[in-house]
Amino acid sequence: MVSWQGFLITLAIMSAIRGVWIWRKYDDHRILRFVGWPGPFEKSGQKEYFWTSGTSGASRAEVEHALSPAYAEKYGWLMTVRARRIIISANLVAWALVIYGGFDLPGGLGLSNSHLSWWSFIPLITWWAARASARVIADAPDELLDERLLTLRNAAYHEAYRFLGAIVSFIVIVAIAMDISITENTRDFGNADWTSMAVTLPFVAIWALSSLPSLVLIAKQSLVE
Amino acid sequence: MGRRPKEETPVFNRLEEVREARGLSRTELAYGADVHYQTIGYIERGEYSPSLSLALTLAEILRTDVHDIFSLEPFSKKKAPTW
């Protein structure tokens, strides 16, 4: 049975993401672009925007502002050691709450009756704070960073990948160990067997996490010979 | 998490000394070299070793030889700068 409520929520979220993306990328004809009208549009309406790196992207103006001394004056309070520790801790707590509520674990804190509760958006606040504290370096495209910042950014992604591997492994192991099901229906993957899924999932996760860096490297053949 | 990174060969520099002798601020030098203003500070404090191209660019802006700014040995043991 189709959940219209879930469909509408998903549609609203996707539309909001598309709206923000259109707003940030273009200066003109935003509504027409939003509804997908093919044009003709002048190229002049497009902001300078790169997609070469980062997970959420950042425009030239945003990165240049974030790297300026004025930005450090405005958001310096987010860049102190103490503030950064708080941001990291808040992020960890926020994500733990989302996972906890999202899976609707037994003996829960009563935080959630659905998978899209208000507190699921707490990570958005901590994401913003972390992004501002890092001066958008993690999301900045290569072209706008100097060699030191690039080294720093790349090292951060290296460490982040390891953390991601640990987090995914932990979630998969916990999910299997506790035999979690969001609803009884989701246990039935058509003709698929939950036990088979439970055994296969960790292998898929481990295979993907361990293979991806090598796959990316061999895709950039000029780097490895 | 993570292993200890490979030990890097230390690179000594007297960028600050040369920059001040030329009457340039960090921001001005950074602008000329097309790097972030903090990167100059990191190099001067020895917390970051620049690439060969950046080292050569800095030397060119400061109108001196790259060996007068960067060295694999501490500068006290070396001869006086040519600038």
Structural class determined from secondary elements of chain B: mainly alpha
Helix content of chain B: 25-40%
Biggest sheet strand line-up of chain B:
1-2
Average pLDDT of chain A, to the nearest integer? 75
Series of H and E elements of chain B: EHHHHE
**Beta-strand content estimate of chain B:** under 5%
Low-confidence stretches of chain B: none
Trace the largest sheet of chain A across and list its strands.
1-2
* Secondary structure tally: strands of chain A: 2
CATH class of chain B: Mainly Alpha
CATH topological fold name of chain B: 434 Repressor (Amino-terminal Domain)
Q: Specify which chain pair forms the largest interface.
A: A-B, 11 and 12 residues
Transmembrane segments (chain A): 6-23, 86-103, 118-138, 159-178, 198-219
Keywords (chain A): Membrane, Transmembrane, Transmembrane helix
GO molecular function, one term (chain B): DNA binding
Pfam families (chain B): HTH_3
Give a topology summary.
The complex is a heterodimer of chains A (225) and B (83).
Chain A (H helix, E strand, L loop, with lengths): L3 H22 L4 H5 L14 E2 L7 E2 H7 L2 H7 L5 H22 L19 H12 L13 H32 L15 H26 L6
Antiparallel strand pairs in A: 1-2
Chain B lengths: L11 E2 L1 H7 L4 H8 L3 H8 L7 H10 L8 E2 L12
Antiparallel strand pairs in B: 1-2
Helix pairs in contact in B: 2-3
